[in-house]
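Protein modeling request. Please complete all fields; requests missing the sequence field cannot be processed.
Requester role: graduate student
Desired output: 3D structure, token encoding
Chains: 1
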Amino acid sequence: MTDPLRPNRRELLKGAAALGLASATGCLPKGPLSEPISDPGAGTRPNMIVMITDDQAASAWGGAPDYPFLSTPNLERLAAEGAELSQAFCTTALCSPSRASLLTGCYAHRHGVIHNEENDLPPEMPTYPRLLQQSGYQTAFIGKWHMRHGAEVRPGFDHWVAFDGQGDYIDPKLNVDGEMHTATGYVTDVLTDYAVDWLRAPRTAPFCLVLSHKAAHQPFVPAAHHAQAFADATLPKPGNFDDDYASKPAWLRRATLWGETATAWQASDGRTIPDTLPPTTWDARDPEKLNYLRTLLSVDDSVGRMLDTLNELGILDDTFVFFAGDNGFMLGAHRRGDKRLAYEESVRAPMLVRYPRLV
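Delivered output (359 residues):
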């Protein structure tokens, strides 16, 4: 019987499996990585670009109605020329586990990355870049790895540009193919520069490029030229913001009041948990939330640069372009700002794909 947790390797090359991997509903098989992946037989094997954002709410782009002032023309172009997967969810709304699932197609209990910054994937765990590399693809990873501490080169990539942990928005320190460098500039622009340079390099094989952005992770620092964006915008109050939590379990009221991380939870030991949460005031000009959205303007610029570069090289329609967030973000929904609880706002993520041969 076919194992439903194992995606078809042939489909992986065709690009469709990237969607299956991202949904984290399946798992690539463990074991030796010596088996080559056959050509799908539909002509030239597609290139692949996988762009990942951090903590991007499914509603935080111009194709969604929540923020009408948020203009993201390049993401909208990607959706218009391809497809938006409006029912995309992650299984674990936390950076490291979700990113490991994106690479492997496995749930966190199978790939083993269940905390931030504690461990990497097991060495025997296949990832789609490793399988593609073995099949003759040239592979590159540029950006946020954010599993075990350290920016050293990970297996499966011919070219490597990454920072340790969350990295920095301004002048990030990068490991470039094993050597440390301090870049000058804004991290989203810097990573895109590396990606564009790699795309322009001569090659005789198809490629897979993972461009993994830091944005829009805290602390929210927009690029200088976006810092004054949304000067007159007001943030819409989520419809569930006024929930008094009367019908919610005590632990959720406790977590909402004092935090759910281990340190915050322990600090709240012995406190009396109220039966309801008192009303609070919605700040329609919250500078933190506005800065969060401003960081995404540079992400949209990055998407545009990637599409334009592919077009200039004459390979846009031969390249499977996949864009997704690693998880969602509350942005005030349920009175919360993070993503660590399994509300829909946390687990729903944006997902777009462009590949005219299939989509």
